[in-house]
Design brief:
Rossmann fold; 25 helices; 69 strands; 26% helix
């Protein structure tokens, strides 16, 4: 304990004095000396050479400690000196417990919201008092709205921006509104962000608006930002603005794709508001140059050298010289701290630290940071240069272990450490707790050098660096990977496009590079093949039929790529990502801190490594959607609950299913283990909760809850004495687990309650539901302690292991982190493109997982609040279909975000309509067949020219996913229904919303017109069908059958019957005129998702989650035939328009990515339509480096093994 305290004191003192903490060799030496070891003994224990420790590290360490601690320190007295400082620190603490001075975190008002982001530690800041005073006057007195700090790289703009923000915070705390000198209110919101990784404006806006709205507003725009800047006093600091500007003769202009930043700066500069934006940059943005002036609220300050800062930069470099010599040196380099640090190293190397000797040579070659860096770089060893390139590529703090893995060739740890120490000593890298990175100006220089080298190599086909360095990596967090694509790979790609000026020439040239890789000895290449794949991805170059056999494929981003007939036989894969066979991800849970499990709509459980997102295993036993996952308390078993009505128990170690629990009569939605791991609770759509004995598999207890529709969730109290459950009746029930009596019902939710979770201590119960809320309950008193709100249904909540935070996942496509004690939303995590069904914390609380209907699971770093990995699936399910009048074409809407037009006789896809950004759930052909309408999860309806495939118009107005669209017969009016609980009627010629129908109390998922177009019918999980007058918007009638949710609707051709498909597995036939239910068709074993009447109205077809299609006699309700062949839910049905006495054709679309055409008379499938899978024909024979699960995934997506 004493050494750890001593090390902490030494580190803190050195950091304050020298702005750098102790290096690893210095720490190892100090540890050895503290414990009485000799230099020789320390050498043996640490692996550093005796000479290096005794003649280099030791003398420097004792000198640094002497300066930092203010007294002489050497090997003999270091222990007594540090012990003395420990005792002083303890005495100070006992005198003033709990108080400390820390200039890094100024005292702030409790009403002030601050997010420092990656702002640096500036405890060593000195000087610039005059500039800070001027800037404060501009902001507080002159009320400037936009201030630019301009200066060359390394001059200290970043430090100045942080110091200024701290001073403004302190000034706000000291000034009160009632004081006479009060000029402007203190800042309420302060946010500091670096643009080093060049985020696109929409990414930055989302970050800013979320912060300024206290995580409440997730849809960001310039207008929304302007609103918050006007209604609140906000200080925004954007550092490294030059990252989004072009260089060279196009300086001040924005890089392609970053032009919207100009609109941001113009809005902030021109529009009156009470806030301020500070930017730092090496170049003056055009908007600042246009708007600035001493009489205007836009100002620019040139940040030049400061003698105090310059002296501090060279004070610790050990240079020899008089005060006059030091002044001359500082003046020669314009008092630039970075330039002085770099040149000081050269003076040490070339002139033995003698400043006068250096000055006497009148060397002008070193003038300017770039020239200095050129000189420094040319003097580095190959290993040191390699480290510099890898740190620039990694873009974040990097450990030595990560560097060692990046540098594939075997490098001794001691050599790597010495190289890092050398770079640190030259001020080329920064070090912190065993991690390393570069200053922005150095990183930019190294990136530019790498980009220039590799561009030349690719043009000349003389490959070197292209093979030695991964230009983008799959093992970094997602936002860093995006930066690598934009700033490194993108820059190379743009230069190649400019050079070749032809996509065909560039394609052929890159293909020749691939051929040249095969000329090298087998398995010698390292990163080239992976880099080539990623470069082609960026350039949108198709690689069909390319040959990558026998090559190493490292860090290849293959997710989302179409790679048909590509040859990977005998290739070696490392750290490469692929599209997965994930369906919609319904549940996520952590097996431990290294492994996470997901379950999906394909009936599979996938196990993933958290460290790299690699698929480790796939568990297959269920035959339908898996809604629930729960790990046993001892982490040895995993339970899964499915729509196939079963529960499977899995051995985590062997990955085998050891038991199947049967007894539920419908879907299993929720699972919970008892704290002792001996029992399992399950809940179901069959309105029951069951308690199972794990050892025997026997059902011990069944708790029936009549007439509530579904029981969604169960949660066992940590004590084991209570069980909580929730369902469609909007109640939370608390059960005594000894007597199984319901002790209490908690009321407060206004819609389905779909998730309940106990706090780790059992003191609070969290619940969430379809009323867009999360509620925190004191179960003992029944009091609702707090209500937290999303913008849509909240399907999952999860407590952090320490109980201080709550995570929630919602249909608003966001995951939110809440501070339990205050109810404050700490962060909104965005990235999913569809509903989020499940969230879960890792046992150590460092990683959060979210699973979504968009076929992805995301792993989030809770500390940085960034996405680590996205596990992405592929699906091409036909959710809706419609025939052309002649029956030759079939149009389908798909989960791959497209609408497809099929040539049915030829069995191939003719046209793919692209424009939607998420799943397309519905499609409909206008009566004249000139326009196709489609709608989906992106909340839009698109109108397409059916002949050309051109998008004619986008209808916007729904606030959530569009479930269904239907054309009013013989008109250009279109009806749509949405998850936002509304029905809308549109004029498609003008794009105007004519009317919005309100009345449903749940989302609306079905809509259809009566054949004469006089009545509009809509259906909803609120258990009703509503009939509307389209002209007045009046609800004419409500059709309701018990408590079952209604999904699809289909009107009989003669208009006298309306069919509805229900979640109780029944098809009901209604007489709209009387509102009477005339017939019930029973026979399906699961929910019904599609209905279609034959053209003559004699047969009704229904498709179900039980994977079957049934044909019904509407008069008798008898099932005429059952068509089987789909491997998953049947989502859509459409009859061929022509029916002859000898043949009738029915099309069906399923979650198995197939469209089947059935001869109804014979009951046989006569044709299957399926789009090519992403890896169709890929050769993976003999591949290495992939798990068996990954190989199985590739094969399922079309690969050949």
């Amino acid at each position: 304990m004493e050494f750890n305290q001593a090390l902490e004191i030494a580190n803190e003192a050195v950091l304050v004095r020298h702005d750098k903490s102790l290096s690893e060799p210095e720490t190892a030496l100090l540890n050895g000396v503290w414990h009485g070891q000799t230099y020789q003994e320390i050498s043996v224990a640490s692996g550093y050479s005796f000479t290096y420790l005794s003649r280099d590290v030791g003398p420097k360490l004792w000198k640094r400690l002497s300066q930092a601690l203010g007294e002489n320190v050497n090997k003999g007295n270091v222990q007594s000196v540090l012990m003395r400082h420990i005792h002083r620190q303890q005495e100070r603490q006992s005198v003033k417990e709990g108080q400390r001075e820390d200039i890094e975190k100024p005292i702030v008002s409790s009403s002030t919201h601050i997010d420092w982001g990656e702002a640096p530690d500036i405890r060593s800041f000195c000087g610039r008092a005059d500039k800070i005073a001027t800037l404060q006057h501009w902001i507080q007195v002159d009320r400037c709205r936009l201030v630019a700090l301009l200066g060359i790289g390394g001059i200290g703009k970043t430090f100045l921006s942080v110091k200024l923000a701290q001073e403004l915070i302190q000034l706000g705390c000291q000034t009160k509104p009632e004081e006479p000198n009060f000029l402007h209110p203190p800042f309420q919101y302060i946010i500091w962000r670096s643009l080093r990784n060049a985020p696109l404006l929409n990414v930055l806006l989302t970050d800013l608006v979320l912060f300024l709205s206290n995580q409440q507003e997730s849809n960001a725009s310039l207008a929304q930002l302007g609103h918050y800047l006007s209604t609140q006093r906000c200080l925004i600091v954007l550092d490294n603005l030059e990252a989004i500007l072009q260089s060279g003769d196009r300086a001040r202009r924005y890089r392609p794709g970053y032009e919207p930043y100009g609109e941001l700066f113009q809005m902030i500069g021109e529009t009156p508001h009470q806030s301020c934006l500070i930017v730092t940059s090496r170049e003056k943005p055009v908007e600042v140059a246009t708007l600035e002036g001493m009489e205007f609220p836009v100002r620019a300050m040139l940040v030049d050298g400061c003698i105090d800062v310059a002296y501090a930069a060279i004070a610790t470099r050990g240079l020899i010289g008089t005060t006059e010599h030091k002044q001359q040196l500082c003046q020669r380099y314009d008092n630039n701290p970075l330039a002085l640090q770099l040149v000081a190293t050269l003076i040490q190397d070339l002139f033995d630290g003698d400043i006068q000797a250096f000055l006497s040579h009148e060397i002008v070659l070193f003038k300017g940071a770039k020239n200095l860096l050129d000189q420094q770089f040319s003097r580095l060893s190959s290993l040191e240069q390699s480290i510099m390139y890898w740190l620039a590529i990694n873009r974040e703090w990097t450990t030595m272990g990560e560097l060692s893995e990046d540098i594939i060739s075997s490098t001794r740890r001691s050599n790597l450490l010495e190289a890092l120490e050398s770079l640190y000593g030259r001020s080329l890298i920064e070090a912190r707790a065993g991690q390393y990175t570069q200053q922005p100006v150095v990183m930019e220089y190294v990136c530019d050098r790498l980009i220039e080298n590799i561009t030349t190599e690719l043009i000349t086909q003389e490959i070197s660096d292209f093979d030695q360095f991964a230009l983008t990596k799959t093992t970094v967090s997602e936002y860093v990977c995006e930066s690598q694509f934009r700033l490194i790979l993108g820059a190379i790609g743009d230069r190649l496009q400019m050079f070749f000026n032809s996509s065909t020439r560039l394609h052929d040239h890159l293909y020749q590079i691939l051929l040249s890789l095969h000329q090298k000895p087998v398995m010698v290449t390292s990163y080239a093949a992976g880099n080539l794949i990623n470069l082609c991805r960026y350039l949108h170059i198709e690689m069909d039929e390319w040959d990558f056999s026998n090559l190493q494929i490292r860090h290849a981003h293959l997710q989302g790529l179409i790679l048909r007939q590509i040859d990977f036989h005998n290739a070696y894969f490392a750290h490469s990502t692929f599209t997965e066979t994930l369906g919609s991800v319904l549940a996520v849970t952590f097996m431990n801190d290294a492994l996470v499990a997901t379950s999906d709509t394909n009936g599979k459980i996938h196990l993933w490594q958290i460290a790299n997102g690699q698929l480790m295993a796939t568990l297959s036993e269920h035959s339908n959607w898996i809604w629930a996952l729960a790990q046993s308390p001892d982490q040895k078993m995993l339970a899964s609950g499915s729509a196939d009505q079963t529960i499977c128990l899995w051995n985590v170690q062997t990955k085998e299913c050891t038991k199947v629990l049967q007894g539920h009569r419908s879907w299993v939605f929720g699972l919970a283990w008892s704290p002792d791991g001996k029992k399992l609770a399950s809940c179901s759509q069959d309105e029951t909760i069951k308690i199972w004995d794990i050892q025997s598999g026997e059902c011990l207890q069944t708790l029936p809850i009549a007439n509530i529709g579904m029981v969604w969730s169960v949660a066992w109290h940590p004590s084991g004495h209570l069980l909580a459950s929730s369902g469609n009746d909007r109640l939370i029930r608390v059960w005594n687990t000894q007597t199984w009596q319901c002790l209490k019902q908690l009321q407060g939710h206004e819609n389905w309650v779909v998730s309940v979770k106990w706090h780790p201590t059992g003191e609070i119960l969290a619940s969430s539901g379809y009323d867009y809320t999360i509620k925190l309950w004191n179960v003992e008193t029944g009091e609702c302690l707090n209500t937290l709100k999303h913008d849509s249904n909240v399907c999952s909540v999860a407590w952090s292991p320490d109980g201080k935070k709550l995570a929630s996942g919602s249909h608003d496509q966001t995951t939110r982190l809440w501070e339990v004690s205050t109810g404050k939303c700490l962060k909104t995590l965005k990235g999913h493109l569809n509903w989020i069904w499940s969230v879960a914390w890792s046992p150590n609380g460092k990683v959060l997982a979210s699973g979504s209907h968009d076929q992805t699971a995301k792993l989030w770093d809770v500390g940085t609040e960034q996405c680590l990995y996205t596990l992405q699936g592929y699906s091409n399910c036909a959710w809706a279909m419609v025939w052309s009048r002649d029956g030759n074409q079939l149009v389908s809407s798909s989960t791959d975000c497209t609408v497809k037009i099929w040539d049915v006789p030829l069995g191939r896809c003719l046209t793919v309509l692209k424009g939607h950004t998420s799943w397309v759930w519905c499609v409909a052909w206008s009566s004249d067949e000139q326009i196709l309408a489609s709608g989906g999860v992106d909340q839009t309806i698109r109108l397409w020219n059916a002949a050309t495939g051109q998008c004619l118009r986008v209808l916007q107005g729904h606030r959530s996913a569009v479930w269904c669209v239907a054309w009013q017969p013989n008109t250009r009016s279109l009806a749509s229904v949405s998850h936002d609980q509304t029905v809308k009627l549109w004029d498609t010629d003008t794009g105007e919303c004519l009317r919005t129908f309100h009345g449903h109390t749940h989302f609306v998922n079905g809509v259809t017109w009566s054949p004469d177009g006089q009545i509009l019918a809509s259906s909803s999980p609120d258990c009703t069908i509503r009939l509307w007058n389209p002209n007045t918007g009046d609800c004419l009638k409500v059709l309701q059958a018990n408590h079952a949710a209604v999904y699809p609707l289909s009107w009989h051709p003669n208009g006298h019957l309306l069919a509805g498909g229900y979640y109780d597995n029944v098809v009901r036939l209604w007489e709209p005129a009387s509102g009477e239910c005339l017939q019930e068709c029973k026979g399906h074993h699961s929910n019904i998702y599609s209905l279609a009447w034959s053209p003559d109205g004699e047969i009704l077809a229904s498709g179900s989650a039980d994977k079957t299609i049934k044909l019904w006699n509407p008069s008798t309700g008898a099932c005429l035939q059952t068509l089987e062949g789909h491997d998953n839910w049947v989502q859509s049905l459409a009859w061929h328009p022509a029916r002859t006495p000898n043949r009738a054709i029915l099309a069906s679309g399923g979650d198995d990515n197939q469209i089947r055409l059935w001869d109804v008379k014979t009951g046989t499938c006569v044709k299957v339509l399926r789009a090519d899978r992403p890896y169709e024909g890929m050769n993976i024979t003999g591949v290495q480096g992939l798990t068996e699960a990954q190989k199985a995934t590739l094969i399922a997506l079309g690969a050949l093994a």
